[in-house]
Specification:
170 residues, alpha/beta, Uracil-DNA Glycosylase, subunit E, three-stranded antiparallel beta sheet, four-stranded parallel beta sheet, globular, 7 helices
């Protein structure tokens, strides 16, 4: 089993919100794009919230996030995992990203939203909080993964609307 590596963050200088996943799934790793699985609801939800076509070019979608002040990254830098399920991540193999450096480069970020339970749990368990801004607010949102099919798109969309209130400039 090979060691898997996540992607670089997508973030502009004006980022006010950070959305964190756990680790890209296999479809995303294969495509080299965040949330590339065709049944993942991340891009349809963000498209609805930011008024863009979720099927538009990846560069246009990520550009819309950046314009809205939304950064995107994953908690894990690397890990071993069979398949794409978060439950298959081997805890003894994971390495987290350097969040202290990230927040130094993006001092306007005040809100961190977790795309699902695994991202939240990994962040709170494995990320060293020393060096992180004290004013950060954390919130877990329902996972957009197709593995979380028990919650409807409408339910998820309503929960994810909070991202918009936090990404708007004051």
């Amino acid at each position: 089993m090979d060691l898997l590596y996540s992607f670089a963050p997508i973030a502009s200088d004006n980022a006010r919100v950070l959305i964190l996943g756990s680790m890209p799934g296999q479809a995303s790793l294969d495509a080299g794009q965040y949330y590339a699985h065709k049944r993942n609801l991340f891009w349809p939800i963000m498209g609805e919230l930011l008024a863009f076509d979720p099927l538009s070019r990846y560069e246009d979608r990520t550009g819309a996030l950046q314009t809205a002040g939304i950064a995107l990254w994953d908690v894990l830098q690397s890990c071993h995992r069979e398949g794409s399920l978060d439950a298959k991540i081997r805890p003894d193999t994971l390495t987290v990203n350097d969040f202290a450096a990230f927040f130094r480069q993006h001092p306007q970020i005040q809100h961190v939203f977790f795309n699902g339970e695994k991202a939240s749990a990994c962040f709170h368990r494995y990320v060293d909080k020393k060096g992180l801004p004290e004013n950060l607010l954390f919130q877990r949102l329902p996972s957009t993964s197709p593995a979380n099919a028990s919650q409807s798109l409408l339910f998820k969309l309503q929960a994810w609307r909070q991202v918009m209130t936090c990404s708007s400039p004051v």
